[in-house]
Design brief:
By secondary structure, the protein is α+β, with helices and mostly antiparallel strands. The chain contains nine helices and 22 strands. The strands form five sheets. Strands 3, 5, 6, 7, 10, 12 and 13 form a seven-stranded antiparallel beta sheet that branches. The chain is globular.
């Protein structure tokens, strides 16, 4: 009788919980595009036997998380003895997190009461071979929308000469010799404005949320923003949407077709965009580097950019992702500008604006150009006539949110 009662209770529990489990899915709250790390972007000393405290700015909140580490571009194995996350010590407490705009935060210190160690296949330590990625086991954490999160990676004996990193972190990483205990004074460590080996943070959701990936170059990566203030245009975009996953996959100097810095969009698209779980929308905001670096063959390069856009659109559509085209912003006053480069930009933007190619339009060009000289950025929005400044990025982020908001 007892066995039958136990079996009935177990069966009832399974019937109750199975629909909930079936609806759960992983969604990105933060991601970055991995890159090969040249000597100038490595720490002055090896990462071996040191700990790197790195700061990320998340979009969605959640209570069950997992993190991806990558050694995709490493030329040797990475020994990691521990990884832990925590709130930065100066993160405001409460249900909502207000943007810090006036005081530069201190990324070196953490709230040790919030420390949570990650495991990988139920172990804290791991060796990540060259060319490999790994997800942590799911872990519990009270992650709030829009907060900063400190991720500390403690390295073992072996790290590659060329790590996998993201050069344009726009946040300061503190690298300290030793085991990197939570209470250690990381402010005494070496400082580097790069991320090492961290590539994704995802939340487990019981109800589907919108997840928007952004494919871009240095303007999306945040060139011209303020280091440690999280004021890229995608940060303002995320804040305005509030509760939507926003994944910044921009790379400074990146091209769509060939050349530029890191792998061009055509090559990295499957890894950086299509492999992200449950992306619902994609913004493509690339092309200025292809134009500026084309070195002649203007008409041919223009058509190659357009053909590449169409290839990326088709691949995203095949996975059920809606694609939004963002127009290329002006460059007059910068070395990127010439009569022929401007003609290329206008032609590509005309194609982006024409209905039937993208699912929607984000006309950054119209937003940030100077009405008195439409080939130039508004003076208040730029300091180098190519990239935007925080004021320009705020306008872009809020405008994009209006274009994509529900």
């Amino acid at each position: 009788m007892i066995n039958k009662l136990f079996f009935s209770i177990v069966t009832l529990l399974l019937l109750v919980t199975t629909p909930l489990l079936a609806d759960q899915r992983w969604e990105g709250t933060w991601a970055t595009a991995p890159e090969f790390t040249g000597p100038s972007d490595m720490p002055k000393a090896s990462l071996s036997n040191r700990a790197a405290r790195q700061i990320i700015h998340v979009s969605m909140g959640g209570t069950t998380l997992r993190m991806q580490l990558s050694n995709h571009f490493g030329n040797g194995p990475v020994d990691i003895t521990a990884v832990y996350v925590a709130d930065p010590a100066d993160t405001p407490q409460g249900k909502t997190v207000k943007r810090e705009t006036n005081i530069l935060p201190c990324n070196a210190r953490i709230n040790t009461k919030t420390v949570r160690y990650l495991t990988f296949n139920h172990r804290r330590s791991l060796t990540l071979d060259a060319g490999r990625d790994i997800y942590s086991d799911p872990f519990s954490y009270q992650l709030r929308p829009g907060q900063r999160l400190a991720v500390t990676v403690v390295y073992g004996k072996r790290t590659p000469e060329h790590a996998t990193s993201h050069r344009g972190s726009r946040t300061t990483t503190y690298i300290l010799a030793g085991k990197g205990a939570p209470k250690a004074d990381f402010s005494q460590g070496e400082k580097a404005d790069h991320w090492y080996n961290i590539t994704r943070l995802e939340v487990l959701s019981n109800t589907p949320h919108e997840v928007i990936a952004v494919l871009g170059n240095s303007i999306t990566d945040g060139r011209g923003s303020t280091t440690n203030l999280q004021n890229r245009w995608t940060d303002f975009f995320s804040d305005a949407l509030n509760g939507v996953g926003v994944l910044n996959l921009g790379i400074g100097g990146n091209c769509v077709v060939r050349g530029g810095l890191s792998e061009p969009a055509l090559k990295r698209f499957d890894r950086d965009i299509l492999s992200q779980p449950n992306v619902s929308k994609l913004i493509i905001f690339e092309g200025t580097n292809d134009i500026g670096c084309c070195g002649g063959n203007y008409e041919k390069m223009t058509q190659e950019i357009i053909n590449a856009y169409q290839t990326l659109i088709d691949k995203a559509h095949a996975k059920g992702i809606k694609v939004y085209g963002a127009t290329i912003t002006p460059t007059k006053g910068n070395g990127w500008y010439s009569f022929f480069h401007e003609a290329m930009r206008q032609t590509v933007n005309e194609w982006i604006r024409k209905p039937g190619h993208f699912d929607g339009l984000i006309d950054f060009d119209a937003l940030v150009r100077d009405p008195a000289d439409p080939q130039r950025l508004l003076p208040a929005f730029s300091d180098d006539w190519l990239h935007l400044n925080p004021k320009g990025y705020e306008a872009m982020g809020q405008y994009a949110a209006k274009m994509l908001g529900n």
